[in-house]
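dude i think i finally got it to work??
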Amino acid sequence: MNPQLRTISVRGLDLAVWDWPGEEPPLVFAHATGFHGRIWDRIIAQIPGRRALAIEARGHGRSSKPEPPYHWPEFGADLAAIAESLDITHAIGIGHSMGGHATARAAWLRPVTYRSLLLIDPTIFPPGLYGQPPLDATFTLRRKAVFESPDQMFHRFHKREPFARWKPEILHDYCNYGLLQTADHWNLACPPAVEASIYHESIAAEAGVHSELAQLSQPVVVMRAAILRKSGELDLAASPTDPALISYIPNAREIVLDGVSHYIPMEQPGRVAAEISALISA
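look at this
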């Protein structure tokens, strides 16, 4: 079943929400930096009959794109505001990378939103990294931002890392919904300047969420890749997650996956769907 595209006006922004009908309480999905809500299609399809909401963060997809800088606390506040606007309660929150960070902060800001959380390789660094000099993300400013079509984007990426590891159908979704059409071409739905700002701000002092995590009462599952990002490097294929993250969360367990990169939902959607189904049944 195709989702409805909704626009929710909160905090001075118009934020896009893809809404699949089904049984309540819903699943609430938050994507990674540079992605969009439809990146979750193949996982949602494996959990039929459950309402699913896939949020498109500010600067991404069909949501408002304010000028940089993009401060990380805003993503969690936006997510909490959407939940308040839609009266979402007792949902299962699923967040990947930046979306994991946002989901954790939203759970702290509005605890009634979630009954449990699945944080997939969340971009939550060890506490000592916050407040350090920003990461060099200038390479994102050189991204190709204009394409002739989503097919051209797919063929440009499908043999390159990390995309070569992805399920082809998910890469097609990434391309089909990651571009916005104009009269004669297609533009990246997350402009390079937005992506660069998000990475630049990722270790700002106010981006740390460890004190908030300590106050979460919901069960939390942290799923992360075994290969760890080296300090000071912006290796997008390695896990950015604090290896000691679950020690800060009162009710948490960890799943460490070998043989995958940071892009777990794109490489192992079945594994992610199975964990969501387990949380539904818990």
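The chain has one domain: 4-131+204-281.
im so relieved honestly
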